[in-house]
Amino acid sequence: MNFRALLLAVVAAASLGGLTQASEEAEPPTAEVFHGERLFLETRFAQRFYDFVSRGGGINESLDKGDPKLEKTYRFFGLPPYQIPFAPGPFEGSSYNCRTCHLVDEHVGQKELGMRAYNDFASRSPLPERDDGQSVSVRNSPVLVGSLSPRDPFLLHLDGEFASTRELVIATLTGRNLGWLPDESALAARHACEIIREDDGTGELAGEFSGLAYSEVFSGVSASGEALPEEHRIATERRINVSESSCDEILVGIADLIGHYLDDLKFSAEADILSPYDLFLSINGLPARPDEDESDEDYSDRLLARIDSLDESGELRFVERNPATEDGGFRFHDQPYRFGEIELQGLRIFFNREPAPGRGAGNCGSCHAAPHFTDFGFHNIGVTQVEYEAIHGQGSFWKLLIPAVGPRNEQADVYLPATATHPDRRGMFRRLASESDPMATDLGAWNIFLNEDYPNAQEPLHRSFCQNGTGCKTADQALGRSVAAFKTPTLRDLGHSAPYMHNGQISDLHASVAFYIAASASSRNGTIRNADPELRKVEITPNDIQPLVSFLISLYEDYE
Ligand code: HEC
Ligand code: HEC
Question: What is the second-level CATH architecture of the domain 1-28+267-377+489-560?
Answer without folding.
Answer: Orthogonal Bundle (1.10)
